[in-house]
Amino acid sequence: MSLAKAMRVLVLANQKGGVGKTTTAINLGTALAAIGERVLIVDLDPQGNASTGLGIDRKNRSVSTYNVMVGESSLADAIQPTAIPNLAMAPSTLDLLGVELEIANEKDRAYKLRGAILDFDAEQAKLPQAEAYTYVLIDCPPSLNLLTINALAASHAVVVPLQCEFFALEGLTQLLATVDQVKSALNPDLSIHGVVLTMFDPRNNLANQVVADVRQFLGDKVYETVIPRNVRISEAPSHGKPALLYDLKCSGSQAYLRLASEVIRRERLLRAA
User: Fold this and answer.
1) How far is the C-alpha of 178 from the C-alpha of 33, rounded, in Å?
2) Is residue 2 part of a domain?
3) Which parts of the chain have pLDDT scores under 70?
4) What is the C-alpha separation between 115 and 105, in angstroms, rounded?
5) Are β-strands 8-12 and 135-139 bridged in parallel, bridged antiparallel, or unpaired?
6) How far apart are the first and last CA of the chain?
7) Among 6, 154, 171, 260, which is 20 to 30 Å from 119 by CA?
């Protein structure tokens, strides 16, 4: 059961909360859409912040990623358009909190999302190229549970948002170990796409030291783009908008556009290899 080739599936994962994971999913997805890609964000976090941040009202989530995970609905059935052209969302609900117990005894419990994405990709292959999705971004809960394992098993590569703070490297080591385990046991195609440093404040000496340490530890796996700590990025979700729609000219929005360009460049290099 090999992964789709045409449609690239990237998972945003970090077991630490508050690192900018959902913010990165929303704004990277929006930036990729803005430069011509067709993007689907799959919200696999029971909190549903990515869904809310893209304006999907909770009362309009009758079919969600919960239904997809338990096999009641296809991924295509869960997809909703957003206000951003070329960007769609498969929203989540609090029902996802119970998924782990519901599928725990099933043999394919780690492959529920992978199976749904493969079925979806088979449908996409029948569409004209201009109508098919080119990227799927999966937003995970802030823990290494069965939902995150499903996302890692369903993806080509991992994008790791990492806050510029003291304990950043400690959490990163644990995540990288989990990625290695998933790669050896469930998904040999999985790789680290890159680490994106978030919430960077250049006035903070510690933040500068974290950037230097992470770059020394991971080398070119760290994206050149660093996402600054930015009030407009923080305000945008309360308006149900990505930062790029809320304030395109702010430093955070401009950083996410640069990150999207960097992701595309890395993708071209990977495909050429």
Assistant:
1) 30
2) no
3) 1-5, 273
4) 17
5) parallel
6) 22
7) 260
- Residue 1 within any structural domain of the chain: no
pLDDT of residue 38: 95
Question: Which spans in 157-250 are helix H?
Answer: 168-185, 205-218, 231-235, 243-246
pLDDT value for 173:
86
**pLDDT tens, 149-189?**
999 999 999 999 998 887 777 778 888 999 999 999 999 99
Number of domains in the chain: 1
Q: What confidence score (pLDDT) does residue 273 get? A: 65
Q: Which CATH number belongs to the domain containing residue 38 in this structure?
A: 3.40.50.300
Cβ atoms of 165 and 172 within 8 Å: the answer is no
Q: What angle do CA 232, 247, 56 make, to 5 degrees?
A: 85
The pTM of the full predicted model, rounded to 2 decimals, is 0.94
Q: Name the token pair of 199.
A: 């919430």
Q: Which two tokens stand for residue 47?
A: 């909190």
Nearest to 13 by CA among 1, 22, 2, 5: 22
Residue 267 resides in a domain? yes
pLDDT tens digits along 219-232: 999 999 999 988 88
Q: What is the DSSP letter of 4?
A: P
- List the strands of the sheet with 157-163, edge to edge: 80-81, 87-90, 39-43, 135-139, 8-12, 157-163, 191-200, 222-228
The domain of 121 spans 8-272
Tokens of 271: 């495909």
